[in-house]
Amino acid sequence: MLNLAIALPPTLHEGDRLDSAEFLRRWEAMPDLKQAELIDGVVFMASPVSLDHCTIHHDVSTWTGLYRGYTPGCQAGNDGTWVMGPKDTPQPDIFLRILPEFGGQSPAAGKYAAGAPELIVEVSGCSLSRDLGIKLDLYRRAGVREYLTVQLQPRAIVWRQLTRGKYKEMEPGDGGILRSRVFPGLWLHPEAFWKGNLLPAAQQGLASPEHGAFVKRLENARRGK
Q1: Rg of the Cα trace of the chain?
Q2: CA distance 100 to 137
Q3: Which long-range contacts (CB under 8 A, 24 or more apart) does 194-201 make?
Q4: Which domains can be identified in the chain, with CATH numbers?
């Protein structure tokens, strides 16, 4: 009787050195694996997720999702795989991007996103050294225009803007509110956020004149295609 067994790719392991194509080939053969990243050709596997991490992750997702809901032409997502280069396939916690047909910078690569979204958020607990080290450098090189880290211990929110090839920390404006420059009207009050009260600043931003003007710019960008 013929042996019809199909040889599967080797499984992924922490520290494997691969390119993006081989990384995805092996991962796609492991349907039960939900979290893995390739950064500078090295595989990193997920750590257990604490209650603190998952609840803060949910709050940040609510914030970006609210903005997306009021801003046609934008898209938000969680834990998506991004093909950023031949040796870089990270899985950021949260992203917000402008869709390509509205003038955004990130195309698709088959069923995966490619290039760099305009904004990435990482919730940083046990991954803090990676998020502030090799991932920060990767996002800078890939052209992620804003990179926000929500650090769990000690509590801190750092929002960076890509300026002349380097990340510069953004300072809060009036009322202690951080305001995106890529996504006008995307506002966050760090102190209120840590108290579980993110909506007032978010709603203020969505009601601002600059958000209304941004929505019109996106509409005009699509009509101009």
Answers
A1: 19
A2: 24
A3: 194/155, 196/59, 198/59, 198/62, 198/63, 199/66, 201/175, 201/177
A4: 50-80+90-220 (3.90.1570.10)
What parts of the chain have a pLDDT lower than 50? 1-2, 4
Tell me, yes or no, if the pTM score tops 0.85.
yes
pLDDT at 3: 52
Instruction: Note the pLDDT of residue 146.
Output: 98
pLDDT tens-digit map of 128-184: 899 999 999 999 999 999 999 999 999 999 999 999 999 999 999 999 999 999 999
